Amino acid sequence: MPAIRGFSTLRARSYIFRLPLFTRAIIIAILVFWILSIPSLWDLHQWGSLIPDKVTFATAYRLSTFPLIHLNVIHAVLNVVALTPLMERFENEYGTLTSLALFFGPLTTVPALLYVVIEVGILRANNAVMGASIWVFLLLGMEAIRTYRS
Questions:
Q1: In a domain, 91, yes or no
Q2: pLDDT in tens, 85-121
Q3: DSSP secondary structure string, 46-110?
Q4: Rounded Cα gap, residues 85 and 89, in angstroms
Q5: Rounded to two decimals, what is the model's pTM?
Q6: In which domain, by residue range, is 13 found?
Q7: Residue 106's beta-bridge partner residues?
Q8: 83 located within any domain
Q9: Residue 1 lies in a domain
Q10: Segments of the chain with pLDDT less than 70
Q11: Number of domains within the chain
Q12: Pairwise CA distance, residues 119 & 31, whole Å
């Protein structure tokens, strides 16, 4: 009977240490924001989530902070697990500075602005959005297009 190979912590540690800089920084930022949301001293969800009625010129930071804030630990862990390999591949292909510029530029703000316009203009609602799922779906879409072309 063949032996079942167990989980190797050395392989997991090696994978984590080989992650590119921006990918590691995003994972750490997501975890730090989740830890900061635990105590009730500061309502992080109210501060950084994308709420269409609260997006003004003074609170435009919401267009960039909402992917870093998550509802709970399950939401944060699932987003980190899904995002890590996709972002690692993207960053290895395009570089750290390009990834930084794209992820906190058009890959976050354009979908956020589209969401605000659709939510306010068409749906007439005011639902808060948070989580890195937007990055996961953007990167999955890029991978799907790349696979289709090859």
A1: yes
A2: 999 999 999 999 999 999 999 999 999 999 999 999 9
A3: HHHSB-GGG--STTTTHHHHGGG--SSHHHHHHHHHHHHHHHHHHHHHH-HHHHHHHHTTHHHHH
A4: 6
A5: 0.88
A6: 9-149
A7: none
A8: yes
A9: no
A10: 1-7
A11: 1
A12: 28
- 32, 33, 34, 36: CA torsion to nearest 10: 90
Burial class of residue 72, CB neighbours in 10 A (0-12, 13-18, 19+): exposed
What CATH number is given to the structural domain containing 62? 1.20.1540.10
- The closest alpha carbon to 135, from 73, 92, 85, 95, belongs to 85
* Two tokens, residue 145: 């297009």
Tokens of 117: 């316009």
- What is the number of other CB atoms lying within 10 angstroms of the CB of residue 21? 12
Give a yes or no: residue 87 inside a domain: yes
Residue with tokens 């808060």: 128
The Cα-based distances of 144 to 32, 131, 139, 147 in angstroms read: 31, 22, 9, 5
Tell me if residue 39 falls in helix, strand or coil.
coil
